[in-house]
């Protein structure tokens, strides 16, 4: 009986055990439902959210263990995981999950509309991810985290945290992963961080941490990766860092570190050399030589030392890093030779970047490298003849040997390695012969995107489009001749940027260009193209730049150009075009540069330019046959910086509202002057840009501005009355050799930024206004050969301008550098007293008059250009200009009262 009872008990126990196992295997929760208090905590959490999109539809019913994102323990029924990442939950809440006493894993990441202003977690928490959750109002976040002794991983990146806080004792020493990246910390790295001795991965990147890394970094002896790039850290890297025997990746790029690195990476006794695989020190201020002991870091796969101030030669020991995959020494001050010994055992290498140094490659032409490179960047190094070792490289995708002192032709074998090349830059060399042939691209992952830059070489021969398969093609500044192939649209249907400028191409502009719907930048300037511009433009909806300048094009501007609503820059200058400006161009609302100068356009300047082309920065129509008055609507062009209406047959007065040109008056430097085709899809593509350029006359010289264009402010007007006194940002005012009469404006001192003033060779009379002494930046002044009289003002900047040639040819002037003044000269005309603000009548205010009668053939040229350089540039510039002889325009209809002055001038020039 006892035995049978025992058997019954055993059987019942076995049944209970089997039921428990069955329940566990089937994933059923304890009692089929979650714990009531934990369900209430979850319901309370949900009620605090703004859930207009019903992102938690399953959170109904009694069994919270079946809700989306909730995981319960299969034995106890406690909630252990809560994962609500990327669920679009919103709200400004106080997060209190203390009742979830067994919660171990909490992930609310990727909910950027969720803002938490206070935190309270159960001490059981091991994993916490609040990435992209707003915590900017949660000032005591660190104290809340310090109450989690079991925490292993903490993700707080992109939380807009700005205060990192401090704790006297760290309780979360079990932490292995800490990510504080992409926040707004501006403090030093806190000392408590160095006490988390179990830390394996530390991310501090993209903040504004300052100060140095403490020598206590050696406390983190379990650290495997440290990412502190994109901060403002400075000082030396502590030598104690070489004691981190488990460190695999160190990223300190984009900081302000300085000094030498030999103490950390040149010390053979440190154990870091046995573990380190990835070293990023780029974009800092490190100096000194590259340590020879780097060759002992046998596990290195990535070595980035670019954009520093390292000098000296590259140690040959680098060639022993047989695991190295990426090597970047670019943009330093390295010099010396690079031979095959430096690359001898780099069998894993696929990226080699040494551009921007003074390195000389001296590699045996017969050498066969042990590697297959994908990235080669040797720009500005001395590569010499075209490298023969490249013929073995079948995997090249990015090749940059621009400005590499290559004087050679491109060998025939280059075609064999071209099928994988998606980015090639051989610009600024002395390459000659015919253009290379490229095989069809064999890299589908780039979507057939290919950049070919061969500009500024000596390639000659004809352009054959079958030679290329390009998205961006720049062969400008070569010796190409012949016609542009008519089948260009068939051979390069995906072309976005085409630059063939500065060659000797002739014939017509191919009409087939307009079939390339992807075309964005088209530069055919400075060739010998002739004929009319094709009239079909409708397909090119992405075109931003057209430059046909300096050719021999004729005819009028096609009406269809007005359909290019994305057009930003239009250059047709220096051709033989004629006709009126078509009204269809008023549709080009994005246009910033319109240059039609040096043609034979006629008619009136359209009024709609001022109303419709509101984005214009550059308007140049000089040297045409435009007539009539300047339309008042031009005053609406608030962004205008360069205006050139010179050398036309226009009449009337210059509108007083020209003072409304805000960009000139305020020295506005906003705006883009380099235009790119659509953003390159992959990092590493060579950048091909179209640099905006404008020609401006300054003191008789025609200068071309491109890179410094954003500093230029210029107005060039002729044969009109005009007012410029409101343009306080003007730096250079040149109105020499005109027919100006009357007085110098009494308030010329209001041109407070003026650095150069030239009013010579006019018919100005009266005294020099004393406000001219208020021009504190004036470094160049020329008032010679007028009818000025009275005392020369003194004081301020004028005291440094003591050259008598400034005033020569004005018999009535006296004062410094000239004859002594009589007592009568001391008496100043009314309105010219120093400090006077009395307004004069119109004949003595801000008006300059010029002869407008029949037979007036010489015209009027006034160039006001503003070069906003730093002080040393300005001084150098004006010094250069002053050393150049001024070109003198001699008027045809000479008035009798100028004979004396002309005779005096010729006599003085003869004596010189």
Automatic annotation (TrEMBL):
Signal peptide stretch: 1-23
GO CC annotations on file: plasma membrane
Stretches assigned to the Leucine-rich repeat-containing N-terminal plant-type domain: 36-73
Keyword Lipoprotein: no
Keyword Glycoprotein found: yes
Annotated transmembrane regions: 846-869
Similarity comment: Belongs to the RLP family.
Protein name: Leucine-rich repeat-containing N-terminal plant-type domain-containing protein
Native source species: Manihot esculenta
Species classification: Eukaryota, Viridiplantae, Streptophyta, Embryophyta, Tracheophyta
């Amino acid at each position: 009986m006892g035995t049978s009872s025992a058997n019954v008990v055993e059987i019942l126990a076995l049944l209970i055990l089997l039921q428990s196992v069955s329940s566990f295997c089937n994933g059923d929760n304890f009692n089929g439902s979650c714990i009531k208090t934990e369900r209430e905590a979850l319901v309370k959490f949900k009620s605090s959210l703004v859930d207009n999109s019903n992102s938690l539809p399953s959170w109904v019913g009694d069994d919270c263990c079946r809700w989306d994102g909730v995981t319960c323990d299969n034995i106890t029924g406690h909630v252990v995981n809560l994962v609500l990442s990327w669920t679009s939950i919103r709200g400004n809440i106080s997060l209190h999950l203390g009742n979830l006493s067994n919660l171990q894993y909490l992930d609310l990441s990727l909910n950027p509309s969720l803002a938490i202003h206070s935190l309270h977690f159960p001490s059981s928490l091991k994993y916490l991810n609040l990435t992209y959750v707003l915590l900017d109002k949660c000032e005591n976040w660190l104290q809340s985290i310090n109450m989690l002794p079991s925490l292993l991983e903490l993700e707080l990146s992109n939380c807009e945290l700005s205060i990192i806080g401090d704790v006297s004792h760290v309780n979360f020493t079990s932490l292995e992963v800490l990510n504080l990246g992409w926040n707004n910390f501006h403090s030093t790295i806190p000392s408590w961080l160095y006490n988390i001795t179990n830390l394996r991965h530390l991310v501090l990147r993209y903040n504004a941490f300052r100060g140095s890394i403490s020598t206590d970094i050696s406390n983190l002896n379990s650290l495997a990766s440290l990412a502190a790039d994109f901060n403002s850290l400075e000082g030396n890297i502590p030598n104690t860092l070489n004691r981190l025997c488990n460190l695999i990746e160190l990223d300190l790029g984009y900081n302000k570190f300085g000094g030498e690195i030999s103490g950390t990476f040149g010390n053979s006794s440190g154990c870091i050399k046995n573990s380190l695989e990835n070293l990023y020190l780029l974009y800092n201020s490190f100096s000194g030589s590259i340590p020879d002991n780097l060759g002992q870091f046998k596990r290195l796969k990535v070595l980035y030392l670019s954009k520093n101030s390292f000098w000296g030669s590259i140690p040959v020991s680098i060639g022993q890093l047989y695991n190295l995959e990426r090597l970047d020494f670019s943009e330093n001050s390295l010099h010396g030779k690079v031979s095959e010994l430096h690359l001898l055992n780099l069998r894993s290498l696929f990226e080699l970047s040494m551009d921007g140094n003074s390195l000389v490659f001296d590699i045996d032409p017969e050498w066969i490298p042990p590697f297959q490179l994908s990235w080669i960047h040797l720009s500005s190094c001395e590569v010499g003849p075209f490298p023969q070792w490249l013929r073995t490289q079948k995997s090249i995708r990015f090749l940059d040997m621009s400005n590499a002192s290559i004087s050679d032709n491109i060998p025939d074998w280059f075609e064999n390695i071209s099928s994988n090349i998606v980015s090639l830059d051989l610009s600024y060399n002395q390459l000659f012969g015919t253009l290379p042939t490229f095989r069809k691209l064999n890299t589908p992952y780039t979507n057939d995107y290919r950049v070919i830059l061969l500009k500024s070489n000596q390639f000659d021969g004809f352009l054959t489009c079958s030679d290329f398969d390009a998205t961006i093609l720049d062969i400008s500044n070569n010796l190409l001749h012949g016609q542009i192939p008519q089948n260009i649209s068939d051979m390069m249907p995906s072309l976005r940027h085409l630059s063939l400028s500065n060659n000797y191409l002739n014939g017509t502009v191919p009409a087939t260009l307009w079939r390339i719907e992807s075309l964005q930048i088209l530069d055919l300037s400075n060739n010998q193209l002739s004929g009319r511009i094709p009239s079909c433009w409708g397909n090119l909806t992405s075109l931003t730049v057209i430059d046909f300048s300096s050719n021999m094009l004729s005819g009028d501007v096609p009406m269809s150009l007005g359909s290019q609503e994305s057009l930003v820059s239009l250059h047709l200058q220096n051709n033989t075009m004629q006709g009126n400006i078509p009204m269809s161009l008023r549709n080009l609302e994005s246009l910033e540069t319109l240059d039609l100068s040096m043609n034979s356009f006629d008619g009136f300047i359209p009024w709609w330019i001022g109303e419709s082309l509101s984005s214009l920065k550059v308007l140049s129509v000089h040297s045409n046959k435009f007539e009539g008055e300047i339309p008042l609507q031009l005053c609406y062009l608030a962004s205008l910086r360069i205006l050139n209406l010179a050398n036309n047959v226009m009449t009337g007065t210059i509108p007083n509202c020209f003072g409304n040109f805000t960009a000139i008056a305020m020295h506005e430097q906003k705006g883009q002057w380099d235009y790119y085709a659509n953003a390159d899809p992959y990092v590493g593509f060579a950048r091909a840009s179209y640099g905006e350029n404008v020609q401006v006359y300054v003191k008789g010289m025609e200068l071309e501005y491109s890179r410094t264009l954003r500093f230029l402010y210029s107005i060039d007007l002729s044969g009109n009355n005009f007012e410029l006194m409101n343009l306080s940002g003007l730096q250079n005012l040149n109105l020499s050799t005109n027919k100006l009469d009357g007085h110098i404006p009494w308030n010329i001192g209001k041109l407070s930024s003026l650095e150069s003033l030239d009013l010579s060779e006019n018919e100005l009379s009266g005294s020099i206004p004393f406000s001219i002494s208020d021009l504190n930046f004036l470094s160049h002044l020329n008032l010679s050969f007028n009818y000025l009289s009275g005392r020369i003002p003194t004081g301020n900047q004028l005291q440094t301008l003591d050259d008598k040639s400034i005033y020569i040819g004005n018999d009535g002037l006296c004062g410094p550098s000239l004859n002594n003044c009589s007592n009568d000269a001391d008496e100043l005309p009314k309105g010219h007293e120093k400090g006077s603000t009395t307004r004069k009548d119109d004949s003595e205010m801000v008006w300059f008059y010029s002869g407008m009668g029949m037979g007036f053939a010489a015209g009027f040229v006034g160039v006001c250009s503003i070069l906003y350089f730093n002080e040393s540039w300005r001084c150098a510039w004006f010094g250069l200009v002053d050393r150049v002889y001024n070109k003198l325009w001699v008027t045809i209809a000479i008035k009798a009262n100028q004979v004396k002055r002309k005779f005096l001038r010729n006599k003085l020039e003869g004596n010189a």
